[in-house]
Design a protein that fits this description.
The chain is α/β, with parallel strands linked by helices. The chain has a single domain, classed as 3-Layer(aba) Sandwich (Rossmann fold). It contains 4 helices and 7 strands; from the N terminus they run βαβαββααβββ.
Length: 148
């Protein structure tokens, strides 16, 4: 997908969120890309697609933020949205120390992880990845990838 503006990146996030359905465990998306490549902008659109009303900012300093997903027909079965920014983490154990395994085991959770490559050892096999590439000031390339 080529996004030619922040609004297109948000729209893509919203569209993906609206197509996610509950699994046996939490749905987890890893978001790869350099600083400024559109990861947090995508998360903002994704949260909107889930119906989250809170303002979504990068959780770089707090690392993990939890949001309630309002009850609605589109996202029935999901209760919580987690936005995790692993930029300041050094290894998978750091993520596990935040209770990640318990969060990832609950099917009512949706988790988006920025900088998943920094905590690769803690991630389950079922994680799906999106790669974000800075093309120019306005344009981003977003690709589904199978591995880190």
């Amino acid at each position: 997908m080529i996004a030619k503006s922040t609004s297109e990146t948000k729209k893509f996030g919203r569209e993906i969120a609206e197509k996610v359905y509950p699994q046996r465990k939490a749905v987890i998306l890893g978001l790869r890309g350099e600083l400024g490549s559109g990861k947090t902008t995508f998360v903002q659109g994704f949260a909107k697609g889930l119906g989250v009303k809170d303002k979504i900012l990068s959780p770089t300093f707090v690392i993990l933020k939890k949001f309630r997903i309002p009850k609605n027909k589109k996202q029935a079965g999901f209760r919580n949205f987690y936005h995790i920014d692993c930029y300041r983490l050094n290894k998978g154990k750091d993520l596990l120390d935040l209770g990640f395994k318990e969060i990832a085991d609950k099917p009512e959770n949706i988790i988006l992880i920025e900088w998943p490559e920094r905590v690769k050892s803690a991630l389950p096999q079922r994680v799906m990845f999106l790669s974000f590439k800075f093309v120019n000031m306005n344009t981003r390339e977003i690709l589904w990838t199978k591995k880190l």
